[in-house]
């Protein structure tokens, strides 16, 4: 189903940002607050391949992972009223950037490098792109990736928030923008 004519209130919301900033966790909470459907693209990819992401990379390669990532985002970006959490590498593909920016509201969830490195111990296990890399290499990747995340409709700095607070912050900001741009009265 194409979403021609969707109003700003109906458009799906896409959460982008570097691995570990909280797209999956905060996205799910945001969906509850806004009474929307939630989809995590990585979880859908795992379902399609019936295996966890590190095994997909190992067995089929990153290219196959990216192909499935694009197919799924193409589908969900045309659905109304979703909160869509994508993987941190999704915006490497120009077609994905274009689809999301044209059809959805794209939110960049950001945290500083100093905050991010505090989280590394909980992240590296199931993120193949972090495995076997030095902290300096990861910092380089973190900085390099900022340019793709700069393609967004709104950026939220969520360093100092618990996940629940971050979701509240996003939800309040979205409701306010809907009131300004598409008041219901
Ligand atoms: N606001 C937050 N504060 C502290 N830890 C968080 C926060 N948001 C997420 N986390 C934790 O960081 C890890 C990565 O979160 P996740 O939602 O999977 O990030 P992403 O989807 O961006 O890779 C998880 O263990 C999660 O519990
Ligand atoms: O940044 C990336 O290239 C990736 C990020 C991961 O998602 P999260 O950003 O949710 O960790 C996952 O899609 C995969 O490991 C590749
Ligand atoms: Mg995630």
Automatic annotation (TrEMBL):
Pathway, per record: Metabolic intermediate biosynthesis; chorismate biosynthesis; chorismate from D-erythrose 4-phosphate and phosphoenolpyruvate: step 5/7
SUPFAM superfamilies noted in UniProt: P-loop containing nucleoside triphosphate hydrolases
EC number assigned by the record: 2.7.1.71
Binding, substrate: 42, 66, 88, 145
Pfam families attached to this UniProt entry: SKI
Taxonomy of the source species: Bacteria, Bacillati, Bacillota, Bacilli, Bacillales
Organism expressing this protein natively: Planococcus shenhongbingii
Keywords: Amino-acid biosynthesis, Aromatic amino acid biosynthesis, ATP-binding, Cytoplasm, Kinase, Magnesium, Metal-binding, Nucleotide-binding, Transferase
UniProt: ATP binding residues: 20-25, 127
The protein, known as: Shikimate kinase
An annotated Gene Ontology molecular function: shikimate kinase activity
Gene giving rise to this polypeptide: aroK
PANTHER family in the record: SHIKIMATE KINASE, SHIKIMATE KINASE 1, CHLOROPLASTIC
Intracellular or extracellular location(s): Cytoplasm
Cofactors: Mg(2+)
Binding positions for Mg(2+) per the UniProt entry: 24
UniProt function note: Catalyzes the specific phosphorylation of the 3-hydroxyl group of shikimic acid using ATP as a cosubstrate.
